[in-house]
Design brief:
5 helices; single chain; thioredoxin-dependent peroxiredoxin; globular; seven-stranded mixed sheet; Glutaredoxin; 153 residues; alpha+beta; Thioredoxin_domain; two-stranded antiparallel sheet
């Protein structure tokens, strides 16, 4: 597993979004990107995090950021999640686990003594040249956008 860090080039990817459209990181060249990985659509923590990005989306756009969410859920699940919570940004379906593995966020987890593989909630801030400027591994789901803004002042 790769551990990406600040200063690394963000790995390229192409996958389908909630509308079945192919999206590549290259589509965002020249823009700052908040790439956030979350475990599962429509669960309490993931909903809080996504809605926080939604509620602060215009502020993030005004500061030059695009927001992209990634989970291993499929396009249909993402579309339902987007519609239910009026999410204004792209949600990438990584059900083949290519992006989560490339970014090093597909990890062994432990809940109630049961070990399983899952997505580690992580946010990568990527600059206009495609370089990772910050990695947030301890995400505050209720204030995720503020965590980003505090880092990029």
């Amino acid at each position: 597993m790769t551990t990406l860090k600040e200063g690394d080039k963000a790995p390229a990817f192409t996958a389908k979004d909630q509308n079945g459209k192919e999206v590549s990181l290259a589509d965002y060249k020249g823009k700052n990107v908040i790439l956030y990985f979350y475990p599962k659509d429509d669960t309490p923590g993931c909903t809080a995090e996504s809605c926080d990005f939604r509620d602060n989306y215009q502020s993030l756009l005004s500061k030059g950021f695009e927001v992209i969410g990634v989970s291993t859920d499929d396009e249909k699940s993402h579309k339902k999640f987007e519609t239910k919570y009026s999410l204004p940004f792209t949600l990438i379906a990584d059900n083949e686990l290519k992006i989560v593995e490339t970014y090093g966020v597909w990890v062994e987890k432990n809940m109630y003594g049961k070990k399983y593989m899952g997505t580690a909630r992580t946010t990568f801030i990527i600059d206009a040249e495609g370089v990772i400027t910050h990695v947030i591994s301890k995400v505050d789901t209720k204030a995720s956008s503020q965590q980003v803004l505090d880092l990029v002042k």
